[in-house]
């Protein structure tokens, strides 16, 4: 479904990714792990068209999307849950969710279906999104991404700043998302959380892929070395 080939990308003169290659098959959940600044968010932005590629290519469902605008990638079926949630604080929960349906593809997701996987949102739909807890805002961000009916959803650090019990609640929704046929890339700093929900894992270290493999087969020591570097 997604093929990232030898991608280098960054910000103005600064290079954050070096020759990164990655592939995701339809129906898989793939985790990308790595320390602060390893390049995980930049990789998602490269897939989403939010940073320019210096080199390499990104193909989605056989289409070269390397130069495609972000909104056209959404129409093709890619959707991002950005790091930090990026909720619109002046809007209600329902309005925040509704925004995700602009330019949507045909598909199963509706506000009702989002509420069915995140029941905590049910009584909040008409409330201002600004006043909600971090977990509730994260549920909105995931729901908003789903409302475009993506084939591939990119989740950037869902667990950031949230209590473990809330993280568990949010990740419990992942099977319901996969069951709708949605493929997922999950970016996480928390290795255990990432491995628990994914079929395969890539580790980034200083902008390069330092490990890739099946989540059930990589050992703790392999992934620790890949995460922190050979010095560990
Ligand atoms: P974190 O887990 O802390 O979010 P990350 O693995 O997602 O880290 P990125 O956010 O992709 O890492 O950052 C990779 C590198 O790019 C870092 O050195 C970071 O400082 C730099 N960087 C990220 N965003 C920008 C930006 N908008 N402008 C300039 N440099 C940036």
Helices, strands, pairings?
Blueprint: E1 2-11, E2 14-24, E3 29-34, H1 40-48, E4 53-60, E5 63-64, H2 70-76, E6 78-81, H3 93-99, H4 111-117, H5 134-146, E7 152-156, H6 164-171, H7 174-178, E8 183-188, H8 191-197, E9 200-205, E10 208-214, H9 220-228
Parallel strand pairs: 3-8, 3-9, 6-7, 7-8
Antiparallel strand pairs: 1-2, 1-4, 4-5, 9-10
Helix pairs in contact: 3-5
Bound molecules: adenosine-5'-triphosphate.
Describe the protein's architecture and organization.
Strand 1 and strand 2 form a beta hairpin. The strands form 2 sheets. Strands 6-7-8-3-9-10 form a 6-stranded mixed β-sheet, sandwiched between helices. A 4-stranded antiparallel β-sheet has the order 2-1-4-5, with helices on one face. Helix 3 runs parallel beside helix 5. The chain has a single domain, classed as 3-Layer(aba) Sandwich (Rossmann fold), CATH 3.40.50.300. The protein contains 9 helices and 10 strands. Helix content is 31%, strand content 28%. The mean pLDDT is 91. It starts with a strand and ends with a helix. The chain binds adenosine-5'-triphosphate.
Determine the structural class based on helices, strands and strand pairing: alpha/beta
Give the strand order, joined by hyphens, for the main sheet.
6-7-8-3-9-10
Outline type: globular
Helix content: 25-40%
Which ions, cofactors or small ligands are bound in this entry? adenosine-5'-triphosphate
